[in-house]
Amino acid sequence: MASASDSTTTSYTIRFTSRKPSSIWSAVNTGRAVELMKLGRMHAAGQKAFDERDQRKPQLYSYERAACKLEGAYKTQFRANQKSWEFYQAQAPWYRRTSAYWVISAKQEETHQRRLAQLIKDSADGRRIALLTPTRRKRKK
Fold first, then answer.
1. Would you kindly state where each structural domain of the chain is located, as residue ranges?
2. Residues 33-84: tens digit of each pLDDT
3. DSSP string of 70-105?
4. Most buried of the four, 4, 22, 84, 125, by CB within 10 Å?
């Protein structure tokens, strides 16, 4: 470690903390854990944490969901409004994926329905949902 008077050397510390059973395991971390176990390099504590992880939380992060689409009743409900559906289908894939995740990521069905209704209304009006609409800044004169 460098002394305080040595301005040419930088030092830092990486801190590792143990995982809790409720921790979210990303797809990258899950893959790495499996790889370490195959190589016999996983410590017993790491193996225990991996085995005790919450199996209901895979791909919890939106960026890990490759195919996030409105399906089933949500899609049927959306397609019932032709104008909304046409606007929505004309949007970029990132918007369709992100707005679909916004609808389906809600915890309660009531929230699913409220968000879907907002998405349908905004699409019918020819605009994106406010969450995904960039705000315009006023220029200074």
1. 21-64, 68-132
2. 899 999 999 989 888 888 888 777 666 666 666 667 888 999 999 999 999 9
3. --THHHHHHHTSHHHHHHHHTS-HHHHHHHHHHHHT
4. 84
Taking residue 70's Cβ as centre, other Cβ atoms within 10 Å add up to 20
Contact call for residues 36 and 46 (beta carbons, < 8 A)? yes
Rounded distance, CA 93 to CA 78, Å? 17
Whether the CB-CB separation of 75 and 63 falls below 8 Å is answered with no
Cβ contact 19:47 at 8 Å:
no
Angstrom distances, CA of residue 100 to CA of 38, 43, 59, 112, 130 = 37, 39, 15, 10, 14
pLDDT tens track for 93-104 = 989 988 998 998
